[in-house]
Amino acid sequence: MPLDGASVSGSPGRKSSAADGNSPGGEGGSGPSASGAPEGSGSAPSGGRADPGRAHGGSPTPSVSSGGGGGGGGGGGTSTGGSATLGGPAALSVSTPVREASDKRWCEKVTVSFHNTGGGAARSGTVTFGTHIIGALGIDWATIESTEDLPVPIAAGATRKKTWTVCVDAWRVPLGMHIETRDVSVQGE
What we know:
CATH architecture of the largest domain: Sandwich
CATH topology of the largest domain: Immunoglobulin-like
Helix content: 10-25%
CATH superfamily of the largest domain: Immunoglobulins
Shape: elongated
Number of strands: 7
Number of helices: 7
Structural class: alpha+beta
Distance between the termini: 44 Å
Region (Disordered): 1-101
CATH class of the largest domain: Mainly Beta
């Protein structure tokens, strides 16, 4: 019955019971419970026999929790991954910094975009800038780090852009030298 066409089409409606741990992994475990068999009879032993022949079988619980990464083969695994991601923590990605010169050689304006690819909103965090001090001949003499607050909240799936004026101590940038903020990292929740 796990190979029956009805079990595949009915699996998205029954994913919540498969995610409870009553039946194994995204694809194989949802088949028996979606075909109408009672949950007690469609638990690990019968689903476990169907899974070893599949590429994603073996560890029932992790395949449900990591459905987005490992369940790309079947439609059921993909839908589990999508719903599991919506309830997950925030995951921020940072764009390449866009630099703009300032009237002082030891300062520059840096614009960065943050994209939240996670399931929850980013509510706090910090942005760390790595500002390189560049000599007249192009030699990178030092990197100075500075930290700013993350522009929060950033909702799930949203992108937020902010511009900061990043400066280092004036004595670090003598005449003929300049700064370049090349590195940006973020730590958030």
